[in-house]
Write a structure and sequence with these properties.
With 440 residues, the protein is of the alpha+beta class. Helices cover 41% and strands 25% of the residues. It has 14 helices and 16 strands. The strands form 3 sheets. It has an 8-stranded mixed sheet with strand order 9-10-11-12-13-14-16-15, sandwiched between helices. The chain has a 4-stranded antiparallel sheet with strand order 2-3-1-4, sandwiched between helices. A hairpin with a 2-residue loop joins strand 2 and strand 3 (141-151).
C-alpha cells in the first residue's frame, strides 16, 4: 500500500472530491486559463490587442478570488459553530461548568409523587444541571436541598420563581462553594474529625453542617427543657457553659439538622477534657512553663491572674481598665467566641494569657503578661502558640492592635512574624500577618 492510498486502496484526494470539495479542480482550471492566456499573448505579441487572451487571464483571476472567498467563509463558519474542545482529562460538562455558577436551593414541599420531577423540569428550563439532592423529612412534608450549576446569567429571582412554579414554598437560593459538592454524611464526618483534632471550633463546624447561619452565645445556661428546635431557631447547651442560639433567615431548620447540631455540640463538650490535657512545655529564661487551651472552668484562676496584673498592664491589653466583672472574663474563656491560651508557672498559677478571636478566616490576637513575668520571653512563646492555633484553624489573616508607646509588645509581635501596617486611630498601631493555613 503506497502512502497515497488508504486501507481500501483508494486515493484520499478522490475521496474528498467525491464528497463535493472542488477547490483543487477550480485552482487547476484557473492555472490552465492563466497559462493559455499568457501563451497566446506571448505568441501573438503584446501589441496584438487580443481580447481572448485578456479574457482568459481575467477569468483565471476571478476563479482564484472565488476559491479564496469560499475558503475564508467556510473557516469562519466552522469557528463560530464548533464547540470548545475539552482539555485533556476533562469531560464536556466540566468545560460547560466553567461559565456556570453553583447555587444552593432550599424549599419546603409537599411529600407527593412527582414533586422532584417537577422541580427538576423547572430547573432544567433555566439550563440547570443538578449535582446533589438532599431531602429532609418534616412533620408536614419535606424540605428539598439542591446543589446545581446554572448559567451565569441566571439570577436568584429566576431560581426562586422556578422552585415556586414546581410547588415549592419558602424557597431560598444562595451561591455555594464547590467544596459543598461532597455528600452530607462525608462532610459531617470530616467536620467532626476536625473538631476532635482541634483543627476547628464548634461554631465553624455548625456553619459547615448547616450553611449560612447566625450564631450567638448567651451567658445564661439553658433552663431544663428549653433546648430544642423552634422554626428558624435552634437552642443548644454551649460547651463549657452558656447557651448557643442558632438562627437562619428565610427557611426553618429541620429535625435532621437539629439532630446534627446537637450531636456536634455534645462532641465538642467531650473534647474539652482532651484539650485541657493537651499541654506544651516551654523553657523561658530558666523557668519551665506550661501552655494549654483554657475554658470557663479556669475562671477562678484567670480572675486571680487579672487581679495581680497592674492597672497599666491591663490598660495596654484591653485599651480599658479590663473585663467588666465575671461575665466579661467568661466571654474571654468561651470557646464559641474564640480560643484562649494560658501560660502556667511551675506552681500552677497563671502568669500570662493570650486570646485569639476570629470571624471566618480573619483573626486577632491579644496578650496579657503579669508584671513580675514581663521581659522574660513569656509573651514571645505565647504569641508563637497563638499563631500556631490560627494556622491550625485555617485563619488566613492575623492582626493585633497596640499602643504606640508599647515597645515591648512591638518586639514580641515582630518576632511572631507580624508587621506594622498602619495607625487606624491616634496613638494606636495595627499589625498584620498573612498566615499559611495548615488546613485548606
Amino acid at each position: 500500500m503506497t502512502p497515497t492510498e488508504n486501507s481500501h486502496g483508494t486515493d484520499p484526494g478522490s475521496a474528498r472530491r467525491g464528497r463535493g470539495d472542488w477547490t483543487r479542480e477550480l485552482v487547476e482550471l484557473a492555472a490552465l486559463f492563466l497559462a493559455a492566456g499568457t501563451a497566446h499573448l506571448f505568441v501573438a505579441g503584446m501589441q496584438s490587442h487580443s481580447s481572448g487572451s485578456y479574457a482568459l487571464i481575467a477569468l483565471s483571476g476571478l476563479i482564484v478570488l472565488a476559491v479564496v472567498g469560499r475558503r475564508l467563509w467556510k473557516h469562519r463558519r466552522r469557528s463560530v459553530e464548533a464547540p470548545p474542545a475539552p482539555a485533556d482529562g476533562a469531560d464536556f460538562d466540566d468545560v460547560q461548568d466553567r461559565s456556570r455558577r453553583l447555587w444552593r436551593l432550599r424549599a419546603s414541599v409537599t411529600d407527593s409523587p412527582g414533586r422532584l420531577a417537577r422541580l427538576a423540569a423547572g430547573l432544567a428550563a433555566l439550563g440547570g444541571n443538578i449535582r446533589t439532592v438532599h431531602v429532609h423529612p418534616t412533620v408536614d412534608g419535606a424540605v428539598d436541598e439542591v446543589l446545581l450549576h446554572v448559567p451565569a446569567r441566571v439570577t436568584e429571582a429566576e431560581l426562586i420563581a422556578a422552585v415556586a412554579g414546581a410547588g415549592g414554598r419558602d424557597a431560598t437560593a444562595t451561591q455555594a462553594d464547590v467544596r459543598e459538592l461532597d455528600d452530607v454524611p462525608t462532610r459531617t464526618l470530616n467536620l467532626a474529625k476536625d473538631l476532635v483534632n482541634g483543627r476547628s471550633e464548634l461554631v465553624r463546624v455548625l456553619r459547615g453542617v448547616l450553611g449560612d447561619i447566625g450564631v450567638q452565645w448567651q451567658e445564661d445556661a439553658l433552663a431544663p427543657g428549653a433546648e430544642g428546635l423552634g422554626g428558624t431557631t435552634i437552642r443548644l447547651a454551649a460547651p463549657g457553659g452558656g447557651t448557643l442560639v442558632l438562627e437562619r433567615s428565610g427557611s426553618s431548620f429541620t429535625p435532621a439538622e437539629y439532630a446534627r447540631a446537637r450531636a456536634m455540640a455534645e462532641l465538642a463538650e467531650d473534647c474539652r477534657g482532651r484539650m485541657r490535657r493537651d499541654t506544651q512545655q516551654v523553657g523561658v529564661n530558666g523557668a519551665e512553663l506550661t501552655l494549654r487551651v483554657a475554658d470557663q472552668d479556669d475562671l477562678p484562676m484567670v480572675s486571680e491572674f487579672h487581679e495581680r496584673c497592674s492597672a497599666a498592664a491591663r490598660y495596654r491589653r484591653y485599651f480599658s481598665p479590663g473585663p467588666s466583672g465575671e461575665k466579661g472574663l467568661q466571654r474571654l474563656l468561651t470557646p464559641a467566641l474564640g480560643r484562649a491560651v494560658l501560660a502556667l508557672a511551675p506552681t500552677g498559677e497563671v502568669v500570662a494569657m493570650g486570646n485569639l478571636m476570629y470571624d471566618g478566616d480573619i483573626g486577632e490576637i491579644a496578650l496579657l503578661v503579669r508584671d513580675d513575668w514581663q521581659r522574660r520571653g513569656v509573651g514571645s512563646v505565647l504569641a508563637a502558640r497563638l499563631v500556631e492555633e490560627a494556622q491550625a484553624l485555617g485563619i488566613a489573616t492575623l492582626s493585633a492592635h497596640t499602643h504606640v508607646d508599647n515597645t515591648a509588645i512591638a518586639r514580641t509581635l515582630r518576632k511572631a512574624g507580624l508587621k506594622l501596617v498602619g495607625a487606624p486611630e491616634p496613638g494606636e498601631w495595627c499589625w498584620m500577618k498573612a498566615t499559611a493555613p495548615a488546613v485548606a
